[in-house]
Design a protein that fits this description.
about 475 residues, alpha/beta, 6-stranded mixed sheet, 5-stranded parallel sheet, globular, binds pyridoxal-5'-phosphate
């Protein structure tokens, strides 16, 4: 399978090149030349284990020899603490798809445990090295570090704003003492971290000389791996309910997770509705209800991984919504970059998208949802998951298809929100409890590009 850019000015490339490149050279995002139709395989895939299913789905998209791919998939999920990897549990009116059984207790582990190993594999055959540089406001950094730690051909440099992330988030990252992991506390804000990151990648000379790589959510491999749990969950629920299709609700930030569901539906998985859920940062909800995508100010909420205004994967959706016209995508994105706004006309039936519905939940109703689910069903939702469940609840009685709400983090990662919701510190997990006693390492640097560039250069040159 070959991949093309959403902006149309990049020659088609294979899977491995696309994974190594991240962003397309023309500034667009990579997508497959066509979305494979897997309808005739659904019945044989139903009975597969998570790992077997992951192998089958990734194989459709990736040019990796079968034996090697099997090894990578097996290793990626061996560290999850549930035999089903992403189990589905019934909680009151919804099914909850638990995506937090990986090492950092957030759904990003599902993709980054795989991506770290995939990079390692691709670098080995190229006899190359990679220096991953990332900026994090909390959640992505730890999942990326756990995906890359201890790998000989890779180093990872993660910048976080000093003193501006939670103690748990900081300890999760800085307690990883492997030689190839570098935590940088930047004396500044998250915006400073992002500005420096961007400047490092724009410096093509530096980027090439030191083989800089990225693990952010625009990497195509992350999406492929996330498609798997939509299939896995749909099979479990269709079997249990003896139904022919399901709906999913997805708490959304960068539009990565929900876009994987959109692809699963295009591939032929019977998804009758995708419900997009945002917190107060609701640019995507406004788009799917009005057709207008207008940048707003980011506000801080109790679901920080969703405090995003401009969603990096949205361009991929636009490409399909504009009937795969790369020139139309490029024109709209250019206009968005200069005006902060773009508009899409409704479809014939008046909706913006026939599959995707959208809603948002504010802090009070998110806290109320956590409390209600705890008191009523004895189940603790993390604040991101609660946004999804709250928005989903408006759809529960509307149709007969069961509703699966994606749970993107374990509640023990967000104890302050849980205490606010239920009044007590009831969210515990042994791996979080252990963090307090673990030694940590980090370097504090000023928010200055030359200083950080020199820090990376020195370590990238050492062997
Ligand atoms: C990253 C993240 C999200 C948002 O996922 P996107 O793919 O960016 O939409 C939601 N919840 C948690 C806990 C996350 O870490």
């Amino acid at each position: 399978m070959k991949y093309v850019s959403t902006r149309g000015a990049t020659a088609p490339l294979g899977f491995s090149e696309v994974v190594m490149a991240g962003l397309a050279p023309d500034g667009g995002l990579f997508l497959p030349e066509y979305v494979p139709d897997v309808r005739n395989r659904l019945s044989s895939w139903r009975s597969l284990s998570y790992q077997e299913l992951a192998f089958e789905i990734i194989r459709v998209f990736a040019d990796i020899p079968e034996g090697d791919l099997r090894v990578i998939v097996e290793a990626s999920y061996s560290g999850f603490d549930h035999p089903e990897v992403t189990p589905v549990v019934r909680v009151g009116p919804v099914y909850v798809l638990e995506l937090f059984h990986g090492p950092t207790l957030a759904f990003k582990d599902v993709a980054l445990q795989f991506l770290g190993r995939l990079f390692d594999y691709l670098l080995q055959s190229r006899k190359a090295r990679l220096n991953i540089v990332a900026a994090t406001s909390g959640d992505t950094g730890s999942a990326a570090i756990y995906g890359v730690r201890g790998r000989k051909r890779m180093r990872i440099f993660v910048m976080h704003p000093q003193g501006r992330i939670s103690e748990i988030q900081q300890r999760q990252m800085t307690s990883v003492l492997d030689e190839n992991v570098f935590n940088i506390a930047v004396a500044g804000t998250f915006d400073d971290c992002q500005r420096i990151l961007k400047a490092l990648f724009v410096d093509l000379d530096f980027k090439q000389r030191y083989c800089l790589g990225s693990v952010n959510s625009i990497n195509w491999a992350r999406l492929v791996v996330q498609i798997v749990y939509y299939f896995y969950a749909a099979f479990r629920v269709m079997e249990k309910e003896q139904c022919k299709s399901v709906r999913f609700a997805v708490p959304t930030g960068n539009f990565g997770d929900i876009f994987a569901g959109y692809l699963a539906a295009q591939m032929g998985l019977p998804i009758s509705r995708l419900i997009l859920a945002t917190n107060e940062n609701d640019i995507l909800k406004r788009f799917f209800t009005t057709g207008e995508y207008r940048r707003g100010k980011v506000c801080t909420t109790i679901s920080p991984a969703m405090d995003i205004q401009v969603a990096s994967n949205f361009e991929r959706y636009l490409y399909y919504r504009l009937n795969q016209s790369a020139s139309a995508v490029a024109a709209l994105m250019r206009s968005f970059e200069s005006t902060g706004c773009l508009t899409v006309e409704p479809l014939a039936h008046g909706r913006i998208d026939s599959l995707i519905a959208a809603g948002s939940a504010d802090t009070a109703s998110t806290l109320g949802t956590i409390r209600h689910y705890y008191e009523q069903y004895g189940y603790l939702l993390d604040p991101h998951t609660a946004v999804g469940v709250k928005v989903a609840s408006a759809f529960v009685n509307e149709a007969t298809d069961p509703l699966v709400s994606l749970s993107t983090a374990h509640p023990a990662k967000f104890p302050e929100a849980i205490i606010r919701a239920v009044g007590r510190d009831v969210a515990r997990h042994p791996s979080i409890d252990r963090l307090k006693a673990m030694p940590t390492r980090l370097d504090v640097l000023p928010a200055e590009l030359p200083v950080i560039r020199e820090y990376i250069r020195q370590r990238a040159e050492a062997n």
